[in-house]
């Protein structure tokens, strides 16, 4: 497939509604040959359980999205 063909395909894909783009992206990812790492999945499950327990126990607090954006903006500006 030529670079021009790929560019045209991408242009058509980007014109799709968000839900269709998400489905297309999922299908493309599913089509890749990759090895399923059960250890990684188990590690993520354990991490999710740990974080959920921290939230439920009150040992950590959430940060509102507007505050996260403010901090990220400040961080980005300081790296500049």
Question: How would you describe this protein?
Answer:
The protein has helices at 3-14, 18-31, 38-57, 65-79. The two termini are 39 Å apart. It is an all-alpha fold and 80 residues long. It is extended and about 55 Å long. It folds into two domains: 1-31; 38-80, no CATH class. It contains four helices and no strands. It is 76% helix and 0% strand.
Fill in the keyword field for this structure.
single chain; 80 residues; mainly alpha
Topology:
Elements: H1 3-14, H2 18-31, H3 38-57, H4 65-79
Shape: extended
**Main pleated sheet:** none
Q: Helices and strands, in N-to-C order?
A: HHHH
Question: How many beta-strand elements?
Answer: 0
Q: State the domain count.
A: 2
The helix content is over 70%
**Portion in strands:** under 5%
Number of helices: 4
Structure class: mainly alpha
Radius of gyration, in Å, reads 20 Å
Kindly state the mean pLDDT as a whole number?
A: 92
Characterize this entry briefly.
The chain is mostly helical. Helices cover about 75% and strands about 0% of the residues.
């Amino acid at each position: 497939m030529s670079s021009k063909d790929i560019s045209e395909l991408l242009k058509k894909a980007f014109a799709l509604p968000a839900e269709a783009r998400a489905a297309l992206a999922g299908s493309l990812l599913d089509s890749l040959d990759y090895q399923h790492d059960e250890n990684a999945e188990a590690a993520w499950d354990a991490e999710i359980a740990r974080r959920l327990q921290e939230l439920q126990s009150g040992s950590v607090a959430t940060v509102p999205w507007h505050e996260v954006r403010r901090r990220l903006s400040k961080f980005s500006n300081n790296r500049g």
